[in-house]
Target: ATP-binding protein
Amino acid sequence: MIKRTLATELKAAVGYTPAVALLGPRQVGKTTLALEIGRQINALYLDLESEQNRAKLAQPELYLADHQDKLVIIDEVHRAPGLFPVLRGLIDRARRAGRTTGQYLLLGSASPDLLKQSGESLAGRISYLELAPFSVLETPNLPTDELWLRGGFPDSLLAANAARSLRWRQDFIRTYLERDIPQFGPRIAAETLRRFWGMLAHHQGGLLNIAQFARNLGVDAKTAAAYLDLLADLYLVRRLPAWHANLGKRLVKSPKVYVRDSGLVHALLAIPEKETLLAHPVVGQSWECMVMENLLIAAAGKAQGYFYRTSGGAEIDLLLAWPDNSLWAVEIKRSLNPKVERGFHAACEDLAPARKFVVYPGQERYRMAHDIQAISLLELATQVAEG
Model:
């Protein structure tokens, strides 16, 4: 089994916080990770998609009070938002009795209702952790291009062959549209949302223009923005903010937007294998966004991610802002012989980053200039994770 880098942090959080919410898209491995943690301690697992387990919680306060000596893992917790006030009461009762360590591990597919309910009812009692699909740090023995083509969802990445991987991703998209998304928001026609998701894949890594998306869908801008919010809340899409500071420059302020998992991008665009991908117009942006996503996963909790662009053409693909106010500038190239363009140099003159990197598909690390290094994704992700 592939070890998840979040496992240590999750186990620690369970040790010091009364409730921990492990969030992320479906099929990303939340249940597997939670059960692994549960096997190491005295844990009880409840899946709210099971009628039998839902029946156990018909009187939740009575049932859970009988198991306060255990870590209770509640899967698909968004199906029972009424649980949160009950959990608050049980946690407070346990605190008065002197217990402050983990009592509840809540798993959810990042429902906005889950965040709202838990935020209102469990403030000061809950920690949030996000489990992303497999990253390059968790799969160092697999070719990076395999992770790029198939994406990081376990069943897709580890499928027996490319055809099965693609079929899994196609089924995943269909299930999300027809069954899962209707649980989280207002009724949206599956075909309309499928078209919107596909537009985002075609627009991978582009600047957000919600008015253009709305026109293409035949809806108003408010509706298109709500679709985007929903996909972002479900951790399927990321909005990468633009860096803004008083530099005396005309800065681009719109965020970049992209589908977070590259395998889903390729499924949405009907790209079955690497040869087709390499000939597809999305290839450069797909690679760029896959690299950015992996670096942002590695930087989670350590550095904030941005991009930088001015109207004059200065640009940095990914800017990592560290707590000490230092900046790392990252240029991303899908070439074994990468070249740094004038816009990157101009942007670095504006921002004076402490470190400058060019991520490329090769393995050798070398100096491109006195202060710019070409580096592989795995090596830079490792460096970012170490801070």
Summary: Residues 201 and 265 are 5 Å apart (CA to CA).
